[in-house]
Amino acid sequence: MSEAMKLFRTRKGWIVEHGATHAVVPAAHASALTAREDLDGFLADGNGFTPATAPADTDLLPPIEQQEVWAAGVTYFRSRTARMEESKASAGSGFYDLVYNAERPELFFKAAAWRVVGPGGHVRIRSDARWNVPEPELALLISPKGRILGYTIGNDMSSRDIEGENPLYLPQAKVYDGSCALGPCILIRREPLAPTSGIHLEIRRRRAVAFKASTTLAEMKRDLQTLVDYLYKETSFPNGAVLLTGTGVVPPDDFTLQSGDDIAISLDEVGTLRNTVA
């Protein structure tokens, strides 16, 4: 495949963007589409696809089918520092330094497919948390055999005060209704993203910018395929998986999300994922 493609999941089905053209994947091939080992070749071939117009933002659904969503933590130095800061009051402050420097990465379950929020949807903050932030991340679409098929944007919503109280509270800080968003599409390409690819976060409150920052994939310590290999050790994924690869952008300690905040996460070559806090 000489040219990257984008795959959108819409209310009308899967739509492929190839250059300036769009096509609908036939219903007969749409089931378990993103679990195909030959996804890139199948989409590039385009046999039986019918022409379509570009999908409207209001038609977009999260680009996921039956995959589990997992996440990797402390893959950026900024994430390590933030985790240490949030856990100063507990015994876990040095814990994240050990995780950052260890050979084995931190991996945890994030969401079932039915719990994932799509573009334009509402993410949530926990009612029992006081310190909540979005975590903008590169997300990988992985085949059942562990091949990286494509790339999308993930928002790993996190309750920093709950996790900071005790590292064992990580599942409660990370896994709840409205805690994971994906979109707007999957970038399908065989070549890995360039290390210079930027991840950008902007949070608006009452239309004014409340926080804005960026990083690049070059700041990530872990190799993407290594993260995938560890995820697939002793664990099978018949439908493939989606893996959030960690964040390098964390708002300052005095910032917390509020209801009505608009969150925009952009990834070079992929697009922008927009959500509002419920």
Describe the fold and architecture.
The chain has 278 residues and is of the alpha+beta class. The chain folds into 2 domains: 5-59, no CATH class; 68-277, Fumarylacetoacetate hydrolase, domain 2 (Alpha-Beta Complex), CATH 3.90.850. Helix content is 17%, strand content 35%. It has helices spanning 27-30, 39-45, 77-86, 95-101, 160-165, 170-174, 224-232, and strands spanning 5-10, 13-18, 21-24, 50-52, 68-73, 106-111, 122-123, 132-133, 136-142, 148-156, 158-159, 180-188, 198-205, 208-216, 241-244, 262-267, 271-277. The strands form 3 sheets. The protein has a 10-stranded mixed beta sheet with strand order 4-3-2-1-12-10-9-15-5-6, sandwiched between helices. The chain has a 5-stranded mixed beta sheet with strand order 7-17-16-13-14, with no helix packed on it. A two-stranded antiparallel sheet has the order 8-11. Strand 2 and strand 3 form a beta hairpin. Helix 3 runs antiparallel to helix 4.
Question: Concise description?
Answer:
The chain is of the alpha+beta class. It contains seven helices and 17 strands.
Largest sheet: 10 strands, mixed
Question: What's the shape?
Answer: globular
What is the CATH class of the largest domain? Alpha Beta
Cα-atom radius of gyration: 18 Å
Distance between the termini: 40 Å
Number of domains: 2
Question: Helical region count?
Answer: 7
- Predict the CATH topology of the largest domain: Fumarylacetoacetate hydrolase, domain 2
Mean pLDDT: 92
The succession of helices and strands, N to C, reads EEEHHEEHHEEEEEEHHEEEHEEE
CATH superfamily of the largest domain, called what?
Answer: Fumarylacetoacetase-like, C-terminal domain
Low-confidence stretches: none
- What fraction strand? 25-35%
> How many beta-strand segments?
17
Broad structural category: alpha+beta
